[in-house]
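WARN no homologs supplied; continuing
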Amino acid sequence: MADVNRGDRPLSPHLTIYRPQWTSMTSILVRITGNALVVAAVLIVWWFVAAATGPEAFATANGFLTSWFGDLIMFLSVLGVWYHLLGGLRHLVWDSGRMLDVEKSELAGQMMIVLSVLLTIFTVVVV
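OK structure emitted
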């Protein structure tokens, strides 16, 4: 049987071993934004249910969502929507076999961040 206790080395590569790369960090952020968008969707559903329930429930939900904290959540949700959408488009490009080399995939990750911030600002200012 192999000796599994070879000192203090991990048995398999771990996040602490690797240098963070644009592709890995943007991929992790796509997963995080996907989960965060579920929370935002639950808040929006709460707002709609409260509107259908009655004026008191709607006042509570609307008061929360229009507070500074609710505005922050909704702003970050818009950022998350754009970022997650651009991450999905990046994966569609990768699925077609394009932009798979390191330089182009890192550029795609950088562009995801820049475009999501610009599209969020555009959405908040114009819409």
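The chain has one domain: 22-126.
OK
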